[in-house]
Model the fold of this input.
Amino acid sequence: MRKKKEKNIAGKISGFLDVPLDIVADVPRITINDNRELTVENYKSIEGYEPEEIRLRSKNYRIIISGRNLQIVAITDEEILVRGTICGVLLDLS
Amino acid sequence: MFLTRIFQYIRGYLVITVTGKYPERFFNVCAGRHILIWDLFPCSQTVFRCAVSNRGFRLLPSVVKKTGVQIKIVKKCGLPVVLKRLKKRKWFVAGLTVFFLLLIVLNQFIWKIELSGCETVSASRVQEALSECGLKVGAFRPFLDEKHLQNQMLIKIPELAWLWADKSGSKVTVQVKERVLKPEIFDKNAFCNIEANKDGVIDSMIVKSGIPMVALGDTVRKGDMLVSGLILSEKGVEPRKVQSEAEIYARVWYEKTKAFSLWNQVVNETGKKEKKYTLHLFGWNLNLFLHDESKFAEYTEEVKEHELSVFGRYLGLGFTNRVYSETVTSYEKMSEESMAQSGALEIEAMFDEEATANAKKKESRMSYTVLDEDTIEVTVIAEYIEDIAKKTYIE
Done:
C-alpha cells in the first residue's frame, strides 16, 4: 500500500515537472535498438541467464527478455547491455 | 563501448570461465562491487564464460568465496600480454624498429613526381626545369620550398602562367597552367585595309570605318580588298588614311573528296590475359618479368598503378600492374550507303577544323562513287557563313 502511494507521488511529480520518471523514481528504463540490442537501466540483479532467455529483477517486477543467442555484452551495477536476436520483452508483475 | 574496449585492451584483460550452481549470483555480486565484466555468455547451465579486467580479477577471490563458484583463466589478452611476448623475441622487435625507422627516414625523400597540365610546353622541359630548381627524385623533402620553386619555375619557363607543387608523403604532384597567348592587338594609330582571307560570296557587311570596295552578292577571292583605309577626296584635298574596321560575312564553300575502304576493322578480345608487375621501391623500378614484350601478337594494354600510402601520404612503395588482353582483328564489309555516311561525317569534321571558330554551317551535300567492289569515293560540299575580314597594314 505504502509502495503504491510512493509510486503515485513520484508519478505525479514527474508529470507536473515534465521530468522523466526514471530520474524521479527508481524505476527501470528499457531501451531497444531494433531487435538486436537492449539496454536495461536501474535493474537490481540477474535471476537467470540462458541463450534463449534472460530474467532480470527490478524494484517492482521481473523483466524477461526472450530471443536467440542472447549475450550480455556489458554489466555494471546500474546497467546491463544485451545483444542478440530479441523476440520479446515481458514484464512479470507477479 | 568501442572506446572502452580499446582502453581495456591497453590495460589488459582475462577471459575466464565461472562454474557453479548459481553463477548468476556471482555476476550480481561483481556488479555490486563495481567489477567490470563483459562478453558474458553461458557455455552450459552451470558454466559461464566472460571477460574481466586485470584489476577486477584481483578483487575476485572474495566474490568467489562468497558465491561458492570456481573460476578458471582461459586466456590472457591485451597489450601487456603482447609486450610480454615481444620481450622474448628481441630480434623481431629490433627488426621491426629498424624497418619503421628506415621507413620514416626514406619517407623524408621525394620518390615520385607527378606532372599534369602540360599542353604546348613539353613535359620533359618542365621536368628538366624542376630538377634544376631542386625538385628531383631523391631530393630531401623538408628542404623543398614550394613558393620558391613556384617563383623559380615561372621565371624559367615564361609560357607557364601558374604552377602548384603539392607534397603528400614521398610524392610531389606538380600541376601547371599554361599562359594563354595574348591576341594580336592592332596598333591604334596604324592604318589598314581589310582583305578577304578566303574565297566566297559576300553575304552581309558591317563597315564601321573605311570605304567598302565590294557589295552584297559579290564574289571575292582570297587577298581581294574588301574595305579600303585610304579615303580619297574629290575636292583636291590630300587623301586621308584610316584604320578600317568591319565585319564581313561571306558564304564560303569547302569541298573535299576522299576514298574509303568498305571493309571495317573490328577488334575483339579473345579472353586470354597476361599480367606483368613492376615494383617501385623508393625511386627504383624492379621488373618482375623477363621479357618486356607481351607474348600476344595483337593486344590491348591496361596499366594500373597501386601506391602504398598511409593517411593519404605516399610511402615511396608501390607496384604497377600491366594487363595485356589478346585481341583478334577481323574485317566486316559495310554497305556503301553506311560507309558513305560515316565518311561524310569524317570529312565534315575536317571542315569544322578548317573553318573559323565562329563560322556557321548552312548546308552540306554528300555524294559518292563506287571505285571498285571494296572502295568508294566520298565527296562532300559544305557551305559555311563566316567572317572573312583580315586587316593588312597600308605601307
The domain at 27-92 of chain A is CATH 2.60.40.2000 (Immunoglobulin-like).
